[in-house]
Amino acid sequence: MLTVSGAHFSYGERTVLRDVNLRVGASELVCIVGANGVGKTTLLKLIGGLLQPAQGSVRCFDLDPAHTKRHVLARKLSYLPQSYQLSFPFRVSDVVLMGRYAHHGRGVLGLDKDEDVEAARTAMERCDVLHLADRPFDAVSGGEQRRALLAQAFCQRSELVLLDEPTSALDPAHAMTVFAALVKETDERAASAIAVTHDLNLAARYATRLIVIDECEIVADGEPREVLESAATTKAFRVPMHVDTLPTTDIPFVVPGVMAGSKPGER
What we know:
The chain has 267 residues and is an alpha/beta fold. It folds into two domains: 1-76 and 158-267, Rossmann fold, CATH 3.40.50.300; 86-157, no CATH class. It has helices spanning 40-47, 70-73, 92-97, 114-126, 142-155, 172-189, 200-206, 224-228, 231-237; strands at 2-11, 14-24, 29-33, 55-60, 77-80, 160-164, 192-196, 209-214, 217-222, 241-245, 252-256.
């Protein structure tokens, strides 16, 4: 599904990613974590073909995403960026239906087939925005817009979904809804998702794999709990992570420990 081999990328003279190797197969929910500015979003853009590696290669479904026509790539891959702006006052349902464009190769006004409408309805239900379908997109809250855009990605029915901070601006209940929806997508359609997130608790609870980026490289990749408790993660965040489970459940939670160099009594 996805192979990144020896990828390097720099912004001018500043190296952001170095010798990155990554493989993702079907039915995986992969979370990428790390401190601010370590290259998480850059890696997502390389996978989505928005940037091209200076060295190495990226292949999605045997395609080079940086040299594939966007409407062709969109049948296989969808991308939810950190920010998104619309120039026209579309309804929420119209925004979600835009996810079907890649399957038709024509304008949004032609998206009236039963399968398109049903795909949009299913996606809006899954993301808890069906009740907002007739509202103007620019008249709903930032969190509601975020869920509508996730519904657009689901409506696209791609095999790989890339998400950059998908739960930013969301309350805890809807943040859980988003990740639960990602799990359903990966389970029901054998699709995969790669999400950049700073929410370690959601990553620990829902991800099948956790990847840590530090100093331009992937320094840990594996089962979430093992990765979170690793020395590489402690070094990346400069604080150890304590992982436990909620009482009477196997649901994990993550609490940062004491920062290195802290004095007694400091938190």
